[in-house]
TrEMBL record:
Pathway: Amino-acid biosynthesis; L-histidine biosynthesis; L-histidine from 5-phospho-alpha-D-ribose 1-diphosphate: step 6/9. It is found in: Plastid, Chloroplast. This is Imidazoleglycerol-phosphate dehydratase. Its EC number is 4.2.1.19. One of its GO terms (cellular component) is chloroplast. Pfam families: IGPD. The keyword Amino-acid biosynthesis applies. It comes from Urochloa decumbens.
Length: 271
């Protein structure tokens, strides 16, 4: 078993000043624009907001600031995971605009990560190389582990968030329901019935494994239930879309909470 190397930093350590125009979200006919400038190590942003934005309770990227948060800092996680099998670099901005820059070596997984960005309004950057000449298993797993770790970083102490998310997404004949809790306790219940073994070159067994890996490192309780569907592509895509919207709901701020932890215990622990 190869021991992975992680490169990550605390969200409060570094500041970032943009030196290039802010990338626009993907649209029809548009090429992909990197969500972040490539950097060798983890970093976090501190965005400057104007007095007008601050008075309106808006952060530097147009999203609501956490109650009691005067910095307007974005919630960003960055992880590098390097093993003998894969080399994965992930950055996620929870307060983004839906920009995706994903190149995993697995075309169908790239398409699903685009859905995560677009429907969650997260900025998602994933660059990965791996032993896909064997199969997609190791890359699929390590990408999900890195995304889960980046989510864990970006959520911090989870103060002020909604915590719970619930969304049902249809795609033609398919419909998938996702319920999640950013509880700090990893658990997955996956009720997908995907009729074919592959979509393109992607082994459909890897869908559940992707979410299990993400759950393990993020500390998330996740329930996925297929309500309808016959087309494998539609079922999986509906799943990722529902997950993106449920995660967006759970990570957004509840302004009535005034920055408190959404738990009667007063803490949402990863352990």
């Amino acid at each position: 078993m190869t021991i992975p190397q992680f490169v990550a930093t605390s969200p409060a350590r570094l500041s970032y000043t943009p030196t290039s125009p802010v990338p626009k979200p993907l649209g029809k006919g548009c090429c992909r624009v990197p969500a972040f400038a490539a950097r060798p190590r983890g970093f976090s942003f501190r965005l400057r907001s104007s007095p007008v934005m601050a008075a309106a309770g808006v952060g530097g990227n147009g999203s609501p600031t956490a109650p009691g948060d005067a910095t307007g800092s974005s919630r960003i996680g960055e992880v590098k995971r390097v093993t003998k099998e894969t080399n994965v670099h992930v950055k996620i901005n929870l307060d983004g605009t839906g920009v995706a820059d994903c190149s995993t070596g697995i075309p169908f997984l790239d398409h699903m990560l685009d859905q995560l960005a677009s429907h969650g309004l997260f900025d998602v950057y994933v660059k990965a190389t791996g032993d896909t000449h064997i199969d997609d298993h190791h890359s699929n797993e390590d990408i999900a582990l890195a995304i889960g770790t980046a989510l864990l970083q970006s959520l911090g102490d989870r103060k002020g968030i909604n915590r719970f998310g619930h969304f049902t997404a249809p795609l033609d004949e398919a419909a998938v329901e996702v319920i999640l809790d950013l509880s700090g306790r990893p658990h997955l219940s996956c009720g997908l019935d995907i009729p074919t073994q592959r979509v393109g070159t992607y082994d459909t067994q890897l869908v559940e494994h992707f979410f299990q890996s993400l759950v393990n490192t993020s500390g998330m309780t996740l329930h996925i239930r297929q309500l309808a569907g016959k087309n494998s592509h539609h079922i999986i895509e509906a799943c990722f879309k529902a997950f993106a919207r449920a995660l967006r709901q759970a990570t957004e701020y509840d302004l009535r909470r005034h920055g408190s932890v959404p738990s009667s215990k007063g803490v949402l622990s990863r352990s």
